[in-house]
Amino acid sequence: MRANGVEALAVSLINAFADDRHERRIAELAAEELPGVEVSLSSVVLPEMREYERALTTVANGYVQPQVARYVANLSAQLTRQGVPGELSILRSDGGLSAAEAAISAPVTMLLSGPAGGVTGAVWVAEQSGHTELITFDMGGTSTDVALVRGGTARIGRETKVGDLTVRASAVDVRTVGAGGGSIAHVPQLTRALRVGPQSAGAEPGPAAYGKGGAEPTVTDANVVLGYLPTTLAGGEITLDREAARAAVQTVADAMGLPSAEAAAAGIIDIVNENMLGGLRLVSVQQGFDPRDFALVAFGGAGPLHANALGRLTGAWPVIVPPSPGVLCALGDATTSARDESARTVLRKLDELDAAELRAVFGELAESASRRLVGQGVPAGEHTVTYSADLRFVGQGNELAVTFDAGLLGADDGPAQLARRFDAEHERLFSFTLPAGHELVNARATVSGPRPRVAPIRLEPGDGDVSAARTGATRIYVDGDFVDAGLYDRLKLRAGDVVPGPAIVVEMDSTTLVLPGHTATADAGGSLLIRPSVTEA
């Protein structure tokens, strides 16, 4: 607790996006009256029009700032005491890194950094397999996060949902579905229709198969009953109770009058897959993209179990399962670059802007972001700049973001090119354009440093014989019947090895299911690439 019981101060004046002098003066007075108190200014946090969104974002920044400052300071001190070399960097919601001090000043940029790390890691791994057009699919214990990547770059949104609040901060456009391994299946008495989630068994007591007292049927229990999830995991450190899982899932079978626990478990998996398909459609079909034009990257502890089925539902091939999919978010943190961003409201009609004015607006923003990145230790010669403009038809109340590079700014018809790009984006999203002028609302420049050099995994070449990786066989329930499936140790697979489905590939942190009629090929970078082995209808 600081002076007069105040821990943080948020300042948002209605026209500060256009002139920040009054906000800066308030900050000076606060430093005199409330020494040591963190101050968030809307002209720094979000120098854009719309006072409600700007105020809300500034308050959110101020609310978490004291806690973030203490946490980062303690973490930095512990690392120093333990002799850990290197500089501390913090992941941002847009998938970039910021220095510790920069993160403390703008913690609102880190609200969705966890899911962003997974997307960044997926991009890096997929590049090793030669794929840059991706849909990412991160399924954990309580939820599933999905995102779309084009040309090796994740789509960035300008709003972040945190609970019931929507704050304006650049973040990887991740959509969350309330379906995870711990999601509980239930049959409401009124409808008698099977539902999965959004309630979750959590880590304690967890699914019934965990043997910690859980009794409600979960997605994990269904996977155990169907044989998709072996009863021995993590190299023998975890043992699952199949009978407890069966007893839990049997309650669903009894409530619905189904003939067996397996039939109920299959229904649970079908429903959770359909729920996740809805999330995948949010980032693809509803944004004007055909999922068949993308590869599907599946990770998280539970993602590889459902990935093959979602490939069938979406037509997105190959399905890529990275090595160590359960910890891919950490790899994303290690493979991304330092990043900073500057933005401001312009509010000018494009036909009133000439190319020189457009260059000047975005050039100032790039210079500002670049200067801060240099302050974080990234030399100016290593910077890469991308630009984004929030545009709308004159008379509209909402805008669309259009991204571009320096080539457009160097062109004599830059404003006209920007208008054409906006029209194309509007046509893609809404299937029409308007015979109206265009207005530049917000301008934004993002400056990134070089990606760190992380050595990728390299598997030794195989000879086509996967028998050394096969550890046995098991029975799994697929399409209404039991079939024999091979069990494989992923660590023993070599580059080029092809695992025929049905199969279960086991590793320390996750399990991959390969369905009948499909194969999983281990590539040189350690990923499993699942494709249909026969033409699918």
Please provide a written account of the structure.
Helix 5 (113-128) crosses helix 10 and helix 6 packs across helix 8 (261-283). It is built from 13 helices and 29 strands. The protein is an alpha+beta fold. The mean pLDDT is 90.
Q: Which helices and strands, and how do they pair?
A:
Blueprint: E1 8-11, H1 21-33, E2 38-41, H2 42-45, H3 51-81, E3 89-91, E4 97-99, H4 100-105, H5 113-128, E5 134-139, E6 144-150, E7 153-154, E8 156-157, E9 160-162, E10 165-167, E11 171-172, E12 175-177, E13 183-186, E14 195-200, H6 219-225, E15 232-233, E16 238-239, H7 242-256, H8 261-283, E17 295-299, H9 303-314, E18 319-321, H10 328-335, E19 339-349, H11 355-375, E20 384-393, E21 400-404, H12 406-410, H13 414-430, E22 438-448, E23 470-478, E24 481-489, E25 498-500, E26 503-506, E27 511-514, E28 518-522, E29 528-532
Parallel strand pairs: 1-2, 5-17, 17-18, 24-26
Antiparallel strand pairs: 3-4, 5-6, 6-7, 6-12, 8-11, 9-10, 13-14, 15-16, 18-29, 19-22, 20-21, 20-22, 23-24, 25-28, 26-27, 28-29
What is the overall number of helices? 13
Cα gyration radius (Å): 26 Å
Distance linking N and C termini: 64 Å
Determine the strand fraction and express it as a percent band. Answer: 25-35%
